[in-house]
Amino acid sequence: MxxxxxxxxxxxxxQPEEGSVEVDGCNIHYATWGEVGKPGIVLVxxxxxxxxxxxxxxxxxxxQFRVAALDLSGNGDSGWRQAYxxxxxxxxxxxxxxxxxxxxxxxxVAHSFGGFVALETGHYxxxxxxxxxxxxxxxxPPEDYIEWGLQLQEQGGKKAxxxxxxxxxxxxxxxxxxxxxxxxxxxxxxxxLSRQSLHEVTGGWTWKFDPGLFDLLxxxxxxxxxxxxxxxxxxxxxxxxxxxxxAQSGPYMATLTDEILPIIQIPGAYHHLMFDExxxxxxAIKGILLSWIRETRQDExxxxxxxxxxxxxxxxxxxxxxxxxxxxxxxASK
Length: 334
What we know:
By secondary structure, this protein is of the alpha/beta class. It has one domain (6-153, 215-300): 3-Layer(aba) Sandwich (Rossmann fold). It is built from 14 helices and ten strands. It has helices at residues 6-13, 58-61, 86-99, 113-125, 151-154, 169-173, 187-196, 213-216, 223-228, 250-256, 273-276, 278-296, 301-318, 325-332; strands at residues 17-23, 26-33, 40-44, 66-70, 107-111, 131-135, 198-201, 204-207, 234-239, 263-266. The chain has an eight-stranded mixed β-sheet with strand order 1-2-4-3-5-6-9-10, with helices on both faces. It has a two-stranded antiparallel sheet with strand order 7-8. Strand 3, helix 2 (58-61) and strand 4 (66-70) form a beta-alpha-beta unit. The chain is globular, with a radius of gyration of 24 Å.
């Protein structure tokens, strides 16, 4: 077996600080990397996932950003709710931005179902965001929309079945799968994720996500219109070989925005592109966000450079002059 790339051990060695915040009576778990005071990023995972989906991306953003990743309610180590909604998820993202000290106008980077959460966050809090990068999440025309929520209604009133309880941890870990399924070139990543996706319960081990999350949640036919109504900056990041049904409307979004929307495709990547090509994902996110920061602060740049040059000149002029060896010899000969 080929050795894992350098990024694997570096990411695991970069241990985050963990925290929690209560939102509408539910405990929301999050983790942070990077220094307070740098531009803020909040990372939002997809369906039946958790913040560890960003494990191999977040540490490599932290040199230039203050980064937080959260477990949405019903996922990971956060609490569960009787019912979920886009507005509640948006409040969770906003609360984590504040609790994690992400500063003014933080950026949202959201994967898959997390893109729906980011869309809702932008809908309710767009004036308080620096921008949104939708990762493997697209909006489609209303006539093509498929509702993934309201499963209780769809199933004739039958609630989702509880997740299966496995007798032992190793048996459970072998059942871990990506949705949609895709090739995985790094088995050590699967080993790590599978362990982070399970917790011990009475009788054995089971998955951390709430199987009833989609029973009452309505994602809504108005996603296209909510996207059009966003005032904050937006961009789209896609995997070249993704088969996820919710990520196939990139061409429509390009046409909808008259080709102005930045759309970046990660070559060779599938739906879970942060595991296929984590360093390419990092570079794409940084490139988008740093360009947005430059645009926002463009007027400050000439003054900042002049001030820096003035400081350099002042430092140079105040340094004590050391006589050259030739000058020292000449003075000694007098």
